[in-house]
Amino acid sequence: MDELLRALGETIPQHIAMSPDHGRNEDEQPNLKFQVSCLNAATLTSIAGIQLIWVDTISAHLDFDASVPALYLFRLPSFCRLQSGDDSFLSILTEDLYTENSKSTDDFSVSRLMKEISLSYRMLFRDDRSARELYRRSQRAKASIITATGGRSTDPHLDMLAGLDLPTSFFSPRQHVRETYHADSDFPILRKRLNRIQLYVDGIQPGRLTSLWRDRRDLRLWYTIWAVLIIGGIGVIQAFFAISLAAAQVGIARQSLKLQLQQLPR
């Protein structure tokens, strides 16, 4: 069974041993944080141009292909819910599969991995209003599966994790959502995959005005840029009206002077 599962590929991220003098890489940096503004589905698709591809293979969840670019998402998180217990079938099956040195983290467990996969949907969709709207508008249909009767159905647990029950209106009351996730406590197993995506998105710079409007990865910078543009635009409009009024006054003064010259005795 061990050889059979390993032949199928990387089912679970593997731990890579490092020499003491090798130093830390970007995935192992302390206090690494994942920003919802950077990793939500709306930013991934509209700013980074990443395709979201829904798959039936749990091992492909959060796999990122930068050459496309495409992000693969597992479409059946109810499976994670069923396998989240320590006595689940998957936990028992993989109990002897990995040695201590091959585990992705020291505290690895199947239940921990299942919880991280479930939590990733919240970060991708539920915690951002635009991402919830994107899920409702297009991604929910793409994540659906064909039923035995030939119809299509979406995993109800996915709907809950993606925030289908939450409003998407800009004027709706603010929901209790998170803006930041910690790699060490929230995603110790999936941190490498998430960090790779975040580094890719951080390197994207908007090149058009519409992209600049949608890019809210740094809200302080976004507010600053648009405040400058709006205030500057108002200033330009005021200057235009001031010049127009001055030109009109010059024209009126010229006409008055012309009339006065015509009324003088010759």
Describe this structure in words.
The termini are far apart. The chain has a 3-stranded mixed β-sheet. A two-stranded antiparallel ribbon has the order 1-7. It contains 12 helices and 7 strands. About 5% of the residues have low confidence. It is elongated and about 115 Å long. The chain has 266 residues and is mainly α.
If strands are numbered along the chain, what order do they take across the biggest sheet?
A: 2-4-3
Q: Low-confidence parts lasting 5 or more residues at pLDDT below 50?
A: 13-24
Q: Could you tell me how far the N terminus lies from the C terminus, measured between alpha carbons in angstroms?
A: 118 Å
Radius of gyration: 28 Å
Any chance you could write out the topology, listing elements then pairs?
Blueprint: H1 2-7, E1 33-35, H2 36-39, H3 41-46, E2 51-55, E3 64-65, E4 70-74, H4 77-82, H5 89-93, H6 110-126, H7 129-142, E5 145-146, E6 152-153, H8 156-161, E7 180-182, H9 183-186, H10 191-202, H11 209-214, H12 219-263
Parallel strand pairs: 2-4
Antiparallel strand pairs: 1-7, 3-4, 5-6
Gist?
This protein is mostly helical and 266 residues long. The chain has helices spanning 2-7, 36-39, 41-46, 77-82, 89-93, 110-126, 129-142, 156-161, 183-186, 191-202, 209-214, 219-263, and strands at 33-35, 51-55, 64-65, 70-74, 145-146, 152-153, 180-182.
List keywords for this structure.
mainly alpha, 7 strands, 266 residues, three-stranded mixed sheet, two-stranded antiparallel sheet, elongated
